């Protein structure tokens, strides 16, 4: 006797329901998508007990004719697809013909529909997939479908559901995504207590306000048509968060492709790459990306839930999203850069100032070399090098008035900024008066003859909480994080001087086993890797790494190559410094002055002087993406003190 059985329709429908109907939120998604495919402009969703007792979806769509009522609940019955070739131009959200059959097999369903072509409505009632009754009914044009007692006949599935409050939350999350993907449709979600979410229909900006609130919407940048990449067949629209507005996870990232909300790593990676240095570790941008592309370039038939897609050309999609997001960020960030200009110097003082500036550059060269591990960054050096003054020959600034009984700061990189400046003394009486927390000064380097050396066209106020530098310029006060600013200075100079000059042979070659896509990527960038100092030899299915750049010899190779492969969709040029960014950031971070270390006025000036870039702007972020400078306008302060209303 044979062992292979042909399952009965009611059995395989219940098994299929496990893929299509995971929980009440899955039912809501399928039913609302059916309403949208029916051309509805108004959709109402009512739930009871988180959808476990009752889910009702009503719409004003085209409806279902009486003759199609039974067929709508048969397996693989659909009006949206007739042949496999239709998938290449499919514009509807549903097409597999599994949803209604699966839902009906594990619940009690009542469907009432009134199409335009009929004067009366038709009603059908099913329980566990079996038709209980059919009759005429009355209602306005459209459809209303009620699902009750979900999973009543599959107790194993029922016991895995969460509490009604949790299931209601899942439903809310699903409806939010449907609202964002269909902003022009009026969608309302209600429970026993009233309206939970409502979008009256309008623009995507209106939908975002309905879902996340106006305060969140104000912190988003719109992606305009002029900011899209050169891939003309792919159009990217939507909104992305400001660079200083991030979330601790990816929950607030929505990808919409041809009107369908999906989860896709290619789009997520491209977006986060476009943010570059603006993102801190474990911080993620918020976005709602609306991507329109040819239907024959994307496959939505990957999973019964239709939340996954495959692209014909992932690189093309990556490029379109990356450039759209990057251009939008650049257009908005350029308006918030902080600029300074060098103050004019008097003829008598200019030569002295140039000498000081030369000393600074020399000291920074030493900092860069030691930040790369050549010597201890915190130690004092007594050696003299040709063409420069040894540290021990430099006169220190007396900063004892700063500490007010506290211990002086440990040796740090700013010991190296002291320079020959005889007679400098802090003359501000406020400092000697022992004002706690804030160090006040007039921002000028006083010399013996009363002349002043201005660092920039603003005024240094001082230091607050031994961590923040206060600078006044025009009608704005700038608050600079001394550690973040110094870290940015060191990082930029380390990267500028970073070079893979030497290759180091490995005693034991590292065996690198690759997937097909990784192998193709490695072959494409092999010339660049060899220029860095890698020596890679093919050995059957494996690649043997026999030599590496000396700067990565002590790295975890698994992690290094893992990060290398993460960049394979990126269009940006591969650099060794880029691949080692985290390590270089750590070196700059360790070498930089820390929060809580009190600085002299001269040291503050050195920070400001070296922090300003070639264009006279202050970088707004440290290498890790943390804010380095914020501004407070005079008008905002006057509002706080009610000087103006």
Radius of gyration over all CA atoms, rounded: 33 Å
CATH architectural designation of the largest domain = 2-Layer Sandwich
- Give the CATH topology of the largest domain: formyl-coa transferase, domain 3
**How many distinct folded domains?**
4
- Name the average pLDDT: 76
Secondary-structure-based class equals alpha+beta
Strand order in the largest sheet: 5-4-3-6-2-1-7-8
How far is the first residue's CA from the last residue's CA? 91 Å
| Low-confidence residue ranges | 345-454
What can you tell me about this protein's structure?
With 645 residues, this protein is α+β, with helices and mostly antiparallel strands. It folds into 4 domains: 184 residues, Heat Shock Protein 90, CATH 3.30.565; 118 residues, Ribosomal Protein S5, domain 2 (2-Layer Sandwich); 201 residues, MutL, C-terminal domain, dimerisation subdomain (formyl-coa transferase, domain 3, 2-Layer Sandwich); 41 residues. The chain is 32% helix and 22% strand. It is built from 19 helices and 29 strands. The strands form 8 sheets. The chain has an 8-stranded mixed sheet. Strands 9-10-15-12-13 form a 5-stranded mixed sheet, with helices on both faces. Strands 19-22-23-24-29 form a 5-stranded antiparallel sheet.
